[in-house]
Design brief:
The complex is a heterodimer of chains A (237) and B (116).
Chain A (H helix, E strand, L loop, with lengths): L2 E9 L3 E9 L6 H12 L18 E4 L2 E4 L5 H4 L4 E5 L6 E3 L2 E2 L2 H9 L22 H9 L7 H5 L1 H5 L6 H11 L7 H7 L14 H5 L6 H18 L3
Parallel strand pairs in A: 1-5
Antiparallel strand pairs in A: 1-2, 3-4, 3-5, 6-7
Helix pairs in contact in A: 3-7, 4-7, 7-10
Chain B lengths: L2 H34 L4 H8 L3 H30 L4 H26 L5
Helix pairs in contact in B: 1-3, 3-4
The chains are: A alpha+beta (237), B mainly alpha (116).
Chain lengths: 237, 116
């Protein structure tokens, strides 16, 4: 098999691409390529990963111009002409090489009131939520987010509006708005309202297109837009 | 501007978009019909002036434009130039009032009692 020509971003916000030649292997993932470079070519290369099996959400990068989880992205799927260009995620400050500062991404989950607020104690019984209820089905559709930041990186509205909460935080808020056990619905709807919240979304659907888990933050954001408008008109918020 | 007002503006933009979709369709069909029938400007004005129904329809059209356009323009300016705050809101409001005045002036000229 031919070698791969791999360009990898080096530096922080300012920097440039460095070229490496990596042996092509069968069933090779983009993360395998980055790991090879770090172990065999340049040990100073900084990147982030943990589980290697698509669970932890640590290894997202920009691969040939598109945000992807690298551990589950096969080289054969993305390397046209055996060429790879690997960069850090967009829309986040670069710490070094392929590592971004994820703080603003997760801070926005907190701003969107992404934490469950309940009324029961450990002495109460389990809440009975029917799997067939429409609220539970909406939660199911969005709950598998692994917080990889791919949607945040793919979103042009985040690029244009730094205050925008982003698809992942809003998707999280939508799952909680539909959680019948949660008691902070009004506060959460208020937190995601307006120009920095769900109403800034232009429905480009890049988040849904790129989500490695196949979720649709776009659908959740559309639901939030309707819920917030209804709550505003009814005086709930 | 409070998030509550921002949400109401978003709702107003969606509703005005629905009105505009209908208005543009009726406007295009009417325009094509008038042109194909070979009517002159004077003949068209002769038929439109004094028509209360068409005056009401085009007034609704103008109001929908005056609501819809400045809200969208406010978002575009905000995203393109990273501009937020009272100045942007004021400019959007002025543009909305301007569009309403210019549009209603044209509506009055075409559908009112006489010339502009």
């Amino acid at each position: 098999m031919e070698n791969l020509q791999v360009k990898i971003w080096r530096g922080g916000e300012e920097g440039g691409y460095q070229e490496f030649s990596v042996p092509r292997q069968e069933s090779q993932t983009v993360l395998d390529v980055v790991t090879y470079v770090q172990r065999k070519c340049d040990p100073t290369l900084a990147y982030r990963f943990a589980c290697r099996v698509g669970v932890c959400g640590s290894c997202a990068m920009t691969v040939n111009g598109q945000s992807r989880w690298t551990c589950r992205t096969h080289v054969s799927k993305v390397a046209a002409d055996n060429k790879l260009e690997i960069a850090p995620l967009r829309n986040l400050p670069v710490i070094k090489d392929l590592v971004t500062d994820m703080r603003e991404f997760f801070d926005k989950w907190a701003k969107a009131r992404g934490r469950f607020t309940g009324s029961k104690t450990r002495k109460d019984g389990f809440a009975a939520v029917s799997p067939e209820s429409k609220e539970r089905k909406r939660v199911d559709a969005g709950i598998e987010c692994i917080g990889c930041g791919v949607c945040y990186s793919a979103c042009d509205v985040v690029t244009w509006n730094k205050d925008y909460l982003g698809p992942a935080a809003l998707n999280r808020a939508w799952t909680l708005v539909n959680d019948v056990r949660d008691t902070a619905r009004a506060e959460r709807l208020a937190a995601v309202a307006g120009d920095a919240g769900c109403h800034a979304c232009h429905t480009h659907i890049s988040c849904t297109e790129r989500c490695p888990k196949g979720l649709s933050p776009t659908a959740g954001i559309a639901g939030l837009k309707r819920a917030v408008l209804t709550a505003t008109l009814s005086g709930e918020i | 501007m409070s998030p509550r007002t921002q949400v109401l503006l978003w709702g107003a933009q969606r509703i005005s978009a629905m009105v505009l979709a209908l208005c543009v369709l009726v406007h295009l069909v009417t325009m094509i019909y008038a042109v194909r029938s070979g009517l002159s400007a004077a003949e068209i004005l002769g038929r439109t002036q004094g028509s209360a129904a068409w005056f009401a329809f085009y007034s609704l059209f103008v109001i929908a434009v005056a609501v819809h356009a400045p809200i969208g323009l406010r978002t575009i300016l905000s995203e393109m130039f990273d501009w937020r705050g009272r100045g942007l809101d004021l400019l959007s409001g002025i543009i909305g009032v301007g569009l309403a005045l210019w549009g209603m002036r044209a509506v009055y000229a075409v559908f009112g009692g006489g010339g502009a």
